[in-house]
Amino acid sequence: MTERRGRRPTRNDAAADQPRLVAYDLLRAVSGEGAYANLVLPGLITDGGLGQRDAALATELGYGTLRASGTIDEILTACLDRPLASVDAPVRDLLRLGAYQALRTRIPAHAAVATSVDLARATGNGRAAGFINAVLRRVVTSSWDDWTDRLGADRCALGRLALRTAHPEWIAVAFADALGGDLAETELALAADDVRPQTHLVGWPGRIGRDELLAVSGGEPGPYSPYAVRLSAGDPGGLAAVRDHRAGVQDEGSQLCALALAHAPLTGRDERWLDLCAGPGGKAALLAAVAAQRGATVHANELHPHRAELVRQATAAWNVEVSVGDARSMPGIEGGYDRVLVDAPCTGLGALRRRPEARWRRTPDDVAPLAALQGELLAAALRLVRPGGVVAYVACSPHLAETRDVVAGRELIDARAGFEGVDTLGGGPTVQLWPHRQGTDAMFCALLHGGERA
Predict the structure, then answer these.
(1) What is the pTM of this model?
(2) SS3 of residue 213 by DSSP
(3) Which of 100, 135, 373, 447 is most buried, judging by how many CB atoms fall within 10 Å of its CB?
(4) Tens-of-pLDDT digits for all 454 residues of the chain?
């Protein structure tokens, strides 16, 4: 069985199978080349000439299969008489795609099997067609819930929940820890993390009003950020307001964390702001837009040159100084910065809905080195901010080692005051947002007084 990525079906098959071909090519890029789904898929859709409806199907099949792949692999293993790893990689992806369709969509089981066999032939994997047919026929003998109940019978309650919601168990444990061990709410959080999210837009202040962005996008207003619009469908890249940088794609939770820093009370001047780890530039752009309206300037620093270039592009409409370097050794300015954002590199467990392959790439071993780095970056921010200023520590993760533990022992401002109108914020002083509570990524935000010893 040989892999021939990029081969297209005959003319008779193209119309029916093009969305599945795009989904398959996405799986091959992610599993075979280590690609990121969100970066690869738009180009595949364009190259495939998909209309809106077919693009939506390809996205659902591709992203859904990636999100569920860990649990799907356990189901496939139960249907094989040899290790799944011994199956050729392209055939594994065909099996995953077929199993996802049969178990997690409304596509009838017989259609999921038949289209997978057709897809095998269309992609140069015809020698495996009989094998794929036999395995998928075993898969469709049970439902998703029946499979996960059976495979999870000997696991703890949290392990069964992780299997059913397609999460590694260690991530389910991290969610549960952040939610105080509440298993019922953990189930809600994991379930919300297992569905395709809405796209959130931000209208940059001073460049487009939210009413205009609503009118041109057909979305609905975000419930919390005054600049947010939520889209249930459609390609945001096709909007003129996004193409000409009057608006951008940014999760409402990210907007709220940037705005919490921008509006946090401080003493003294309010002229110089710093985004310490600015790539790819979304929060820097929002800070720059707000700062411009208040006569302040923003300095954005980024470690990686290619990401710094993304920051320059995102902030081109404002007078933003962009530097490249390690934030931990960044030189200060006379008098210090008034506001400093530490949007720390993290596991990204808070955005697993948007990065479907990430949950199966991350491991528990990733957490400790990142937590150490996060602590060092926070210390750098506290060195760079002036006495009387304010630092925001932000992480796109609910993992306690990356959130609560990083700021433990520090003098904290009650961040909830910067999230006015946002419900279910807990007891403070830090804020943890959640998909199941606020419909945002699971963003963490802590505010700290400037002048504290780093």
Answers:
(1) 0.93
(2) helix
(3) 100
(4) 333 344 443 323 443 489 999 999 999 999 999 999 989 999 999 999 999 899 999 999 999 999 999 999 999 999 999 999 999 999 999 999 999 999 999 999 999 999 999 999 999 999 999 999 999 999 999 999 999 999 999 999 999 999 999 999 999 999 999 999 999 999 999 999 999 899 999 999 999 999 999 999 999 999 999 999 999 887 898 899 999 999 999 999 999 999 999 999 999 999 999 999 999 999 999 999 999 999 999 999 999 999 999 999 999 999 999 999 999 999 999 999 999 999 999 999 999 999 999 999 999 999 999 999 999 999 999 999 999 999 999 999 999 999 999 999 999 999 999 999 999 998 999 999 999 999 999 999 999 998 765 5
Q: Catalytic amino acids?
A: 396
Residue pointed to by tokens 């989904």 = 23
Token output for 422: 């946002």
Show the tokens assigned to 98. 């077929």
